[in-house]
Amino acid sequence: MRTRSLALLVALATLLAGCGTPGGDSGDNAEQAEESKQNSAKVDVAKAGDVTLTIWDQEVRGGQAAQIKRLNAAFLAQYPNVKINRVAKSFTDLQTTLKLAVSSNKPPDIVQANQGRTIMGQLVKGGLLKPMDAYADAYGWNERWSETLLDLNRFNAEGTEFGSGNLYGVSQMGEIVGVFYNRAKVKTVPKTFGEFESMLAKAKQAGETPIAFGNLDKFGGIHQFQTVQNQFVGKDPTRNFVFAKNGQTFDTPGNREAAAKLVEWADKGYFTKDFNGTGYDPAWQQFAKGKGPFTIAGTWITFDALKELGDKLGFFLMPGREAGGEPISLGGESIPWAITSKSKHADVAAAYIDFITNAKAADVLVETDNLPAMTATKQPTAPVNKEIFAAWKQLNDADGLTPYMDYATPTFFDDFSGAVQRLLGGKLTPEAFTKAVQGDYAKFTDEL
Amino acid sequence: MTTLAPPGEPRRVAYLYLLPGLVVFALFVLAPLLHSAWLSLFTWDGVTAGEWTGLDNYQAIVSDPKLRAAFMHALVLVAFYAVGPIAIGLLLAAAMSRTRVRGLALFRTVLFLPQVIALVVVAVMWRMIYAPDGGLINEGLRAVGLGGLTQNWLGSFSLALPSVGLIGTWVMYGLTMVLFTAGVQKIPQSLYDAARMDGAGPVREFFAVTLPGLRNEIAVALTLTTIQALRAFDLVYITTGGGPGDATSVPAFEVYNRAFSGGDVGTASAIGVCIAALIFALTLLINRIAEREAAR
To answer: Lower Cβ count inside 10 Å, N or C end of chain B?
Structure first.
């Protein structure tokens, strides 16, 4: 009996395991991309008949949820023939389930597919997203966003080159990583990097924590590093590095200098004590409670920090090492809206995406406490938001945004954030740090 | 002429009774397991066509220092999840074997509570407890004048793993304690009386009576806690995200990372299969030892 049941088990095993090559039917993507580009047109949605758009998004928090609810309602009111089947998920939930959903036989029509190689690049590689260039021409999207913001949503048809090629998505909101300050403690905004450093020294002498910083969640360190790096390296090397343009390396004198500067700050006690063991939120919340003059963070904390600090909350871009230079700052845009290549209503989907990113939508974004990536006519009321809006305009006019380093390779978030934790924790010298980061990077780019 | 099998003898129809259970097991446990094993033989990003690479993914597990480190961390966690709680559980059981405590049910419930709380909640709670500034431990140390002993619990390269492990100890000791105190009550009082008549002290009594009497319970506790340690994910994911650096990365965390953000489903599956094999081997070993001891 025993042998027989074993045989049964083996038979079952072969039956179950005989699933063939995983993901075997993705086909020739470049050809598909070309084809679907030609089948794109601007349509009058009102005459498109009964359409149901299935949309997967992650606009579920505070102002984000408010804006999408308003815009969806407006779209439905304008086009009663359209129904929206909205599937709202948290960011992490969407990240982990999106690939399966989009590669299924009945994918959603519109999805929010995060920038970079991990999500958007993979989906493009599988021929699962529709190139939106024809729509961009028809709707005038190329004028709506700055070149850099569009580039962040571009890939070649094979999904191997990032930052150029076809447009696969557009974003609603902008974000900047800059310096938040407490007006009660900082009377004038520093004009140079050196001036900023002397303010840090003064705050330290006064017994304060100059920069509220928590790195337990790992991503905070990336933002501290890049904010300093921008002032030592400039924008093009970082962009080319993230987009993996030929021969880019991280092991440069500029990056070593930036790393050394950051270590110097850590050694001088300019950051929150025990920052590697302190959570991201608890750290900036200390700043918001009025402890310490600065925190280096993304504009996503504005909404909550404003509740604590009110008009005392201020924002500036990290100044350059010489006064009066062009602004340059880490930043980007919210998760782009993309159309799946299997969508039966791609033209209506494009009209929807246009609707939630046009000038009227930009005003709705302002009213719901968001920073529109597009130019808006409405201006916010809170002083800090005025500063952020001005900074966003400055950055876009001067083309000064640099992308997040963790876009560079699929594993770079962990690789890079871990390396920054080691650098700031004294486990890596600046030289070893740039070498280690380059080593992780080369493992990926060598195979491109 | 048909002969019926005598009652109590194995009959083929018995397999029919097993079928419903087998179908459910095959569909929800066996099939995914085998599918993972199948995927582990490919280099696959989760979207485009995979490429057959045979055992390369397994070779990578052995040769990749980051993954080797992750498996070492898992073994360290075994000490915290299994050895620690069992030692604590035995100590409590030994104490209880010598005295009859009133309101035992209440104590048991209170001590068992960590087991009942969802691990995610536990992790979030301990993150607050470990916070360098404002956390319960460091503030407690400062309050009693031991400010010099405060630590950067989750942010220190040497302390992060033991700190995560201690959370595991806290979660698991309730389970071992309940198992052992229940087991102790099952040991006949006469054995204790005999030991005392022979002049055994508390230590001798523990090794001669309590410990052998709890053999089966120890095997069960060791199995359950070891499995928990090897598949630890939630605590690491929420408290440290594998950091600082890679100081607390564990295999289950790497599975998640590689499958869902790294776009490397093949290696992720291979790691998963290795965890399963390791758990299987260890539980087999534990049970073998327990059985052999019992036979002696």
So the answer is: N
